[in-house]
């Protein structure tokens, strides 16, 4: 493949960088970490006003997945609150791929304004990564569906207008073949949201569905074919929707800290040979993660579905991120355990934050174990492990 960006893509990246420079403030970043809500609707709406949001929908308009990657890559590197936006644009991409005219008019057009959000209702308390074993049930009663059950890790549910909800509609067939996907309005009676704080400071949620009634028009895809819709979601999520360059902001904070902080021998930390080596290795790791992600985007741009390649990029980026933050926390010593606002916190608390955030990245978007299974079975041709 050719890693060179087209002139159109280079111009798009320049537009995104300029937008970030003009619109991303320290207050927005601080509020994101203070509240645990990694989403800012005003920021999203400003993106839409600049014409940048429509390009974030896979397969929509004249943008291609490479530009989708560039948008989220720049937002991620800048430390912007892009998580809610990424999930929303993921759902927009699914609607664009398999949605009906109703879904396009009622949901997709609204998502492109930046004023609305979606969340994902896949995992359940007893079935985290084993999504195919879910028990949340949707039963057809007349021309409507009645949904009962519970979902876990429903991040952004408290900000969302719709949930992409995976349900069990048939228990008499193999588990992968008896699920149906719905776009459920979060304002529907019977939905309860309970906050769940995480070690990474990001808020997620548990959501409960008690006789939630939706009309059939909210169904996305065919009855009992929710796994196919899920496959589209996973192919879009891993790789081009961010999450593969998380160590870039970390490196920026560490470099600034090392250049201004004395070590025990009173020389600056940046003059420490081991520190310089680890900074260089982190920069290399970031570049490799970027190239792996660009490969996934290129495959999508040429008509493929980069499920395996996205898994490769996701495993590499998240596990290397966890490794390098461990390096810097070790170099920082006790100060590397201090959080935002604490006196003497290394890198103003960013090392501590990244140390708490890094393990989480190996879980969301598919655990490392699930992604390894995907690579083993679909790329290496190894037998199924389950």
Walk me through the topology:
Layout: H1 7-23, H2 26-35, H3 41-49, H4 65-77, H5 83-98, H6 101-111, E1 118-121, E2 137-141, E3 144-151, E4 162-168, E5 179-185, E6 191-197, E7 203-215, E8 219-220, H7 226-237, H8 247-260, H9 273-301, H10 307-332, H11 350-361, H12 368-378
Parallel strand pairs: 1-4
Antiparallel strand pairs: 2-3, 3-7, 4-5, 5-8, 6-7
Helix pairs in contact: 1-4, 4-9, 5-6, 5-7, 8-9, 9-10, 10-11, 10-12
What name does CATH use for the topology of the largest domain?
Butyryl-CoA Dehydrogenase, subunit A, domain 3
Structural class per helix/strand content?
alpha+beta
- The total count of strands amounts to 8
Numbering strands along the chain, what is their spatial order in the largest sheet? 1-4-5-8
Give the terminus-to-terminus CA distance.
34 Å
Number of helices: 12
Beta-strand content estimate:
5-15%
* Portion of residues within helices: 40-55%
Biggest sheet statistics: 4 strands, mixed
**CATH architectural type of the largest domain:** Up-down Bundle
Mean pLDDT, as a whole number? Answer: 90
Radius of gyration: 21 Å
CATH homology group of the largest domain: Butyryl-CoA Dehydrogenase, subunit A, domain 3
Q: Count structural domains.
A: 3
- List SSEs in N-to-C order: HHHHHHEEEEEEEEHHHHHH
The global form is: globular
Question: What CATH first level of the largest domain would be assigned?
Answer: Mainly Alpha
Low-confidence stretches: none
């Amino acid at each position: 493949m050719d890693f060179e960006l087209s002139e159109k893509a280079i111009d798009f990246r320049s537009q995104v960088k300029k937008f970030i420079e003009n619109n991303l403030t320290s207050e927005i970043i601080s509020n994101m970490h203070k509240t645990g809500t990694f989403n800012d609707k005003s920021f999203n709406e400003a993106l839409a006003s600049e014409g940048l949001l429509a390009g974030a929908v896979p397969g929509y308009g004249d943008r291609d997945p490479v530009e989708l990657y560039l948008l989220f890559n720049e937002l991620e590197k800048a430390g912007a609150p892009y998580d809610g936006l990424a999930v929303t644009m993921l759902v927009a991409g699914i609607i664009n791929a398999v949605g009906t005219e109703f879904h396009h008019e009622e949901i997709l057009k609204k998502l492109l304004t930046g004023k609305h959000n979606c969340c994902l209702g896949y995992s359940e308390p007893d079935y985290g990564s084993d999504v195919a074993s879910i028990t949340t049930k949707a039963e057809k009663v007349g021309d409507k569906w009645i949904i009962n059950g519970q979902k876990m890790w429903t991040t952004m549910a408290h900000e969302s207008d719709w949930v992409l909800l995976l349900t069990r509609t048939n228990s008499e067939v193999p588990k992968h073949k008896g699920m149906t996907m719905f776009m459920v309005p979060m304002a529907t009676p019977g939905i309860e949201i309970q906050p769940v704080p995480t070690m990474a400071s990001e808020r997620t949620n548990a959501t409960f569905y008690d006789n939630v009634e939706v009309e059939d028009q909210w169904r996305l895809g065919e009855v009992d074919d929710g796994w196919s819709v899920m496959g589209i979601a996973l192919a879009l999520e891993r790789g081009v929707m961010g999450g593969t360059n998380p160590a870039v902001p970390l490196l920026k904070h560490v470099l600034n800290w090392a250049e201004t902080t004395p070590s025990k021998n009173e020389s600056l930390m940046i003059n420490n040979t081991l520190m310089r080596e680890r900074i260089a290795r982190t920069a290399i790791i970031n570049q490799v993660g970027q190239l792996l992600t660009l490969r996934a985007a290129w495959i999508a741009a040429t008509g493929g579905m980069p499920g395996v390649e996205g898994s490769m990029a996701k495993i590499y980026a998240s596990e290397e991120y966890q490794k390098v933050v461990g390096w810097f926390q070790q170099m920082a010593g006790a100060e590397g355990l201090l959080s935002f606002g604490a006196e003497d916190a290394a890198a103003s608390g960013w090392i501590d934050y990244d140390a708490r955030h890094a393990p989480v990245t190996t879980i969301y978007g598919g655990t490392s174990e699930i992604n390894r299974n995907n690579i083993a079975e679909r790329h290496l041709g190894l037998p199924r492990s389950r």
